[in-house]
Amino acid sequence: MNILENIKKRFIRLSRGQRKVAQFVIDNPTLVANHIASEVGQLIGVSESTVIRFCYAMELNGYNELQEEIKKELVQDGNTESGSEVIPKKIDNTINELMNRDVTNILNTLELIDPHLFAKTTKCLHESEFVYILGFRQSAPSATYMTSILKNYRKHVKQIQHDMEDIVQQLSNIDSKSLLIIIGVDHLFEDVLTVAKLAKNKNAKVVSITNSTLSSLRDYSNALFAIHQHKQNSLETNVSLFSLINAMIEGMIAQNRRQYNDFQKTNEQIESSFTY
């Protein structure tokens, strides 16, 4: 199926703005092949972001891929006339495509989040006496990030390291006053499931952030949040993941902003007393 046929097939599932882009592409393929996304958006009367999000809705990697597919079709049809003078590309459009892709992934992740579960999670993050954060292998940097930010606002925050001795020690401390946050957006290993199961057996609250709503962690989690992935790209996953982590922490702070601001100021005063 060529690109124009694919657009027609998916037309009904597009948003109103994306339908405008779709109709313009169908009617003016030569023009789209020879003009950058911002210029096409101006001609249609929509934002450049809408043009690029249309490309993602078509499961393309961006506007450049849309142009390549259209050019292939024009060559096959023997229609290579530009239809109008080509406007020089003034700027590199890569950064626009990449950052709009990030925005799209964050918005798609937002659609997967249950507001009620999110509210319960931020409240639990506020009320739990101890917070443990687990993220092994590719998820470890995200776990480290969340741990470091939380430590700026509250005490009793611990990252569980991928070391058997540390895992055993931390699991022995976990109890009903504890919250375990599991970040597992890569391949889910058996050791992560084991930790989740043991924590659940000790009546701890368990919140999981994964790359699938069907993750096995669901059986041991009080709340599970899935990160949207576009063509399983790990870099794109991290953007949505960090955004969700920030939202959770902001939700926690909103429970008692003065308390967390005072804790942060105290930390800053202590740190400023030392000479490095």
Helical content band: 55-70%
Number of domains: 2
The fourth-level CATH homologous superfamily of the largest domain is Glucose-6-phosphate isomerase like protein, domain 1
Largest sheet: 5 strands, parallel
One letter per element, helices H and strands E, the order comes to HHHHHHHHEHEHEHEEHH
Overall CATH class of the largest domain: Alpha Beta
Strand content: 5-15%
| Distance between the amino and carboxyl termini | 63 Å
The pLDDT mean sits at 85
* Regions with little confidence, pLDDT below 50 for 5+ residues: 81-91
Identify the overall geometry: elongated
InterPro entries: Homeodomain-like_sf, HTH_RpiR, RpiR-like, RpiR-like_SIS, SIS_dom, SIS_dom_sf, WH-like_DNA-bd_sf
Keywords: DNA-binding, Transcription, Transcription regulation
Organism: Ureibacillus manganicus DSM 26584
GO molecular function, one term: DNA binding
Keywords:
alpha/beta; 9% strand; five-stranded parallel beta sheet; Homeodomain-like_sf; Rossmann fold; 276 residues; transcription; DNA binding
